[in-house]
Amino acid sequence: MTEFRTPDEELGRFRRRVLVAGIVALVCFGLLAARFYYLQVVRHEYFHTRAEDNRIGLVPIVPTRGAILDRNGVTLARNFAAYTLEITPSQVADLDETIDALSEIVTIDARDRRRFRKLLEESRNFESVPIRTRLDDAEVARFVARRYRFPGVEVQARLFRDYPHGEVASHVIGYIGRINLRDQERIEERGDTANYRGSDHIGKSGLELSYEAELHGVTGVEQVEVNAGGRAVRVISRTPATTGSDLELTLDIELQKVAEAAFGGRRGALVAIDPRTGGVLALASKPTFDPNLFVDGISTADWNELNDSPDHPLLNRAIFSAYPPGSTFKPFMALAALTTGKRTANQAIADPGYFSFAGRRFMDDKVGGHGMVDLHESIVVSCNTYYYQLANDLGIEGIAGFMAPLGFGSRTGIDIPGEAEGVLPSPAWKRGRFKKPEQQRWYGGETISVGIGQGYNAYTPLQLANALATIVNGGKVFRPHVVRHVIDTASGERRAVQPEPIRQLAIKPAHLAAVRDAMVDVNKSGTGARAFAGAPYSAGGKTGTAQVYSLKGSKYVAGRVRERLRDHSWFIAYAPAENPTIALAVLVENGGFGAQSAAPIARQVIDYHLLGARLEAPADEDAGAADAEADSHAGHDEEATP
Amino acid sequence: MTEQRFSPLRLLVAAIRPIDPILFGLLAVLLGYAFGLMHSASPERIASLLVNSGVAVAAMWLAARLSPQRLLSLALPLYAGGVLLLVAVDLFGETSKGATRWLDIGITRIQPSEIMKIAMPLMLAWYFQQREGHIRLREFVVAGALLAVPVALILIQPDLGTSLLVAAAGFYVIFFAGLSWKLIVPVALVSIVGIGAIVGFGDQLCQPGVDWQVLREYQKHRVCTLLDPTQDPLGRGFHIIQSTIAIGSGGVLGKGWTEGTQTHLAFLPERHTDFIFSVLAEEFGLLGALVLLASYLLLLLRGFVIAAQAPSLATRLLAGSITMIFFTYAFVNMGMVSGILPVVGVPLPFISYGGTALVTLCLGVGILMSIQRSRVLARG
After folding, report:
1. Which of residues 178-237 of B touch A (CB under 8 A)?
2. All structural domains of chain B with their residue ranges
3. Residue A72 has what DSSP assignment?
4. What residues of A are designated binding site for Zn(2+)?
5. Handedness of CA A297, A303, A307, A309 (dihedral sign)
6. Residue B334 near residue A32, CB atoms below 8 Å
7. Rounded to whole angstroms, what are the CA distances from A292 to A248, A261, A525?
8. What is its main location (chain B) (predicted)?
9. Which of A390, B115, B322, B333 has fewest C-beta within 10 Å?
10. Between chain A and chain B, how many beta carbons pairs sit less than 8 Å apart?
């Protein structure tokens, strides 16, 4: 390495290195000069011809987007052709003047102008930007006759996306919208730029987003001769575009309609799954929105209305909102008891109406208790005391360890985007969730709340429906899916989305049967009996009530609590009991007791699914009010809990 | 300084004294190219180019007025601040085009990796100055570490182009400080063999699904497109094909100002930024390109002369490194546009549209002027 040198030697060496650097620079520039000479002199003729040929331009042919069909072939998303009036900003001297002049020929309202401004900001100068979409024939004729006055303005035939069912199933189907800068960056990142040359719409949510690659298709290329002004005069060759694949869903749009209608004006969510395959039959989130609003760029007023509404219509409650499961958690707890051997089916406990733990009393709903309660009875009458004790015996690690494989607290992997994880509470979760050491500690009393589905645990309706499907199909955990077939429109080849059992749980059939029998009796003689009275089939179910607001020390009376603070109403159900083809979870936000508002919705959906008939009478919201006062009220009995 | 009476003439003389006429003349030629080409490629940007060049020349003038010692005293805070900002970018930065490069500081968005292009050579020059007379292996190891940290932070954004430029800027200081040829030659050999392997086995390596481990997917595409641009004429190869057509069709004398068909039929992508050289070559031909090359060569020559005559170790290293940065920008940009280097997103120095790069480069010119002036002062 370097030895001691005099400053002069140092300087000398530095100057030699500068000389080396200079020589390198000179050589590199020589290389460039040689390259320029090669391109501009040696191969000039060739490139000159190529540049002339470049008057032969490559024009992308945008593929037609695939359609979305329900399980019976009913169209849920399709395309239709319409004319748009488009302006190429770089070819127009004064945009405002041009638009004013155009508005004398075709209707251009303030909304069109605002949308144009927004799109203009997001587009490049030489791309044409639509000022009006869906021109009618008279408007097209009027413009074409005056086209000479408007250089840089053109009428284009374009395909538009249409969702014929409007608000129905919009959270599943999603919508497309114009490609914005962020989408553009994602496309570039995927290395898909060429395929999107010419496309101006892209899936933004739901299936339109998650199956974007299948739906979009492959862009074609047309070689055209362009004149000096860049306008195409003759087509030379053509590689046609490949239409995107169609999606055929497992979803039944008629069942979906029944489900959404059953909610009436109430907020909530419903997920119905075929337990044999994991295929989603219906997935509703109420209120919903009209996806057609988004296709041409949503107006600010519409957007604000959707986004600022206290009902949050854009939120997909079925997969993103997590709620405490309430008593619907009890069948799963019962299964944990049997599987771990902490209880046998026949073992009964005495319920005095409360459970004492660490000097506190955890209350049952029934004053004085249910008497001697075994596992079957505990589900049918929804006995809290049984589960307080059980939770204490299992311990929080035992509960979390059993529930995790059922999919509680982890994403199910459904093929629509935006799924939430939910919360499966455990001491480890609490340590990660909170910062202060005193908050990080797990308390025994918290385990007891978890036992009846209150406390920290929170699951999405999808997770609950999928866990129920696992109980009724013999312990197979499926990855739920909405798409059944991806249909290649060119070859007609149908690629099936295979039912994907993620795992088989080692639960004894006898244990599953014990829990299922109890759930069937819930609908015969228990908390679900009223909703399922007179059903010509046998169904299993379980009510649940998720506490929204803790009323410390006072009795919960639905009428006295403001609507938004009322409990959420849950119902999980499956049918037919012998060989289930549907398993569902219903949640009605602020619906009060589960039997009151959620169970009738489940009944209507199962009726339609099995019998093909709608219950004509709408659910009577007050029908169960009297029961609710007297009957199980899981959330509000922990008066002694902190 | 003696008390001087206010006089506009004297003020003017004082104002232009720090300006080196040769460097400024060359800068004027290059900016002249910038305005001429912008008028052809993207006339609506002339106004903002005017603003950018105004700010850039002001930055140059400010840097030229400061003494090299003052500039070097900024090295450590600039470097440390830059590294902190880069960490902040990796943690909270805004993502754009798949890379997190920008930091939103409320009023405006800044790109800390740009700061590093100046801070890096300043820092290393300052460091070697501190260790002057004791520069051994240990000093080179420390310098290497000072270089590696910001380069790694920029690389994970990911921004291969800028990280290579910052790495080059730092490497030039280390090279001029006297890093042994025994270390330089093997690295150079490995690079040449590596590039040779990619060119030789390009077909196999560019198959889809082949994971290149160290490079991201988009970087792989860039290299593969260079090897065979015709593979994907609508997509990634489009830029290079169109720009070589533009250059080649320009011929010896070019098609004439604003007469380029490639430029005006919108076949040329990014024609006001990275690909502006193709506009030049199409409209002004080989002649215009060679005049540009000559202008850059003169700029480099002036920079090397200033470096060779600089009064101290730090100023020598700084001047040499800045000059080599100019060379790197110019060579990489013209190389990629003419299809002998991969497209890495390096602007043509002083000519491509882009305010930050122009200001950074003019700061570099200002530093050279400051060093040149300190030599004059030292002597006289």
Report:
1. 178, 180, 217-218, 221, 232-236
2. 20-379
3. T
4. 351, 364, 370, 383
5. negative
6. yes
7. 20, 20, 46
8. membrane
9. B115
10. 158
Residue A193: how many CB atoms within 10 A of its CB?
Answer: 18
Fold topology of A58-245: Penicillin-binding protein 2a (Domain 2) (3.90.1310)
Put simply, the answer to whether A50 touches B249 (Cβ < 8 Å) is: yes
Query: A253-308+318-636 sits in which CATH class?
Result: alpha beta
Q: Where are the alpha helices (DSSP H) in A123-166?
A: 137-145
ipTM for the whole complex: 0.89
Extents of the domains making up chain A: 7-54, 58-245, 253-308+318-636
Contact A339, A511 (CB under 8 A): yes
Indicate the burial class of A163 (C-beta count within 10 angstroms; 0-12, 13-18, 19 or more): buried
Written as six digits, the tokens of B2 are 């003696």
Residue A134: its pLDDT value, please?
Answer: 83
| DSSP-derived secondary structure letter, B270 | T
Known catalytic residue: A285? no
- Interchain CB contact of B96 with A (< 8 Å): yes
CB burial of residue A244 (10 Å; 0-12, 13-18, 19+): buried
Are B63 and B366 contacting, i.e. CB atoms less than 8 angstroms apart?
yes
| List of residues 6+ apart from A222 with CB closer than 8 A | A58, A59, A60, A61, A235, A237, A238, A239
Is B341 in CB contact (< 8 Å) with chain A? Answer: no
DSSP state of A589: T
Regions of chain A where pLDDT drops below 70:
1-5, 53-57, 122-127, 225-233, 549-562, 594, 613-642
